[in-house]
Design goal:
Chemotaxis Receptor Methyltransferase Cher, domain 1; 2 domains; 299 residues; Rossmann fold; 3-stranded antiparallel β-sheet; 11 helices; alpha/beta; single chain
Length: 299
């Protein structure tokens, strides 16, 4: 069994300069099984080079000499839990940005603006961003909800939860700080309303929005244990593409269970085809894949 060696000795460090041997079929299959078992995500053979590159970078960082040694470190090593968390962070695609899908956020705004005003005055809106990465999506949801409340002349009675499988990503999201480049292309009025300059060419979300957003680590395979219930809006885009079709359906059914009657579920275009989730009614839209939970269904 291998152990983590954070500082390889000078005598043995020459191997760091050598190219690691290619991963063989058995090793690749072993990693495929582990990733799918623990995260539900599938890794097609076309992405073997992606896996090799990310594993080898991490292996050199900790002084691990072979894929098998690193596998044993992940599964059986004394720091297995911490190392697995680090690896998941490396393997999770974190490409995201503010207002990534404008049509979907317009749909959310339309949904909120057409709710009975008296209900919005008395009951908090609860939104959930599933697979939130570094936080751009849940913060965008908070901005959209806040704008809706202003337009309706209501107090900002809402909250947003962001969840992700990666602990480091969740920690970064909590800071509410982003590189200033993240604002490129964003409407200047939104920038002025919700961001302020921070140190070293970064910007941060204003406190009134940050206070409305919380983050938690959550594996979507554990949705049955998630404490979220009675959600008015669930936003889950660009996540299901990594799962097998049958598992996508299971995830969507679990999410639907956590919607309040009349709640809105938004997915990414093309992530769920040829299937009608039970208890949900498709929102007529050419550009957004979304459903409303029927009012007659119980939570």
């Amino acid at each position: 069994m291998s152990e983590l060696h954070n500082t390889p000795s000078p005598a043995g460090s020459s191997w760091l300069l050598r190219r690691l041997p290619d991963m063989d079929e058995a090793q690749f299959h072993q990693w495929q099984v582990l990733l799918e078992h623990r995260t539900g995500m599938t890794l097609p053979v076309e992405r073997r080079s992606f896996l090799e590159t990310n594993l080898s970078i991490r292996m050199r960082e900790i002084g691990c000499r072979s894929y098998q040694d690193y596998y044993e470190t992940i599964v059986l090593g004394p720091d297995a839990i911490q190392e697995w968390s680090t690896l998941v962070d490396r393997l999770t695609v974190q490409e995201t940005r503010f207002f990534r899908d404008p049509d979907a956020f317009r749909l959310v705004a339309d949904y909120v603006l057409t709710r009975p005003r008296e209900h919005l005055r008395k009951h908090a809106l609860e939104a959930w961003s599933v697979g939130c990465s570094t936080g751009e999506e849940p913060y965008t949801l908070a901005m959209v909800l806040n704008d809706c409340m202003r337009q309706l002349a209501l107090q900002p009675l809402y909250g947003v939860t962001g969840s992700d499988i990666s602990s480091p990503v969740v920690e970064r999201a909590r800071t509410g700080q982003f590189n200033a480049r993240k604002l490129q292309g964003m409407d200047e009025s939104i920038q002025a309303r919700y961001f302020r300059p921070a140190e070293r060419n970064t910007v941060e979300i204003i406190d009134s929005i940050r206070e409305r957003v919380c983050f938690t680590r959550l594996n979507v395979l554990d949705l049955d244990k998630a404490p979220m219930h009675g959600m008015n809006i669930i936003f889950c885009q660009n996540l299901l593409i990594y799962f097998r079709r049958w598992r996508r359906r299971e995830i969507v059914k679990r999410l639907a269970e956590r919607l309040a009657p009349g709640g809105l579920l938004v997915l990414g275009q093309g992530e769920l085809t040829d299937w009608q989730p039970p208890g949900l009614q498709r929102v007529p839209s050419e550009h957004v894949l979304a459903w409303i939970k029927r009012q007659t269904d119980e939570e």
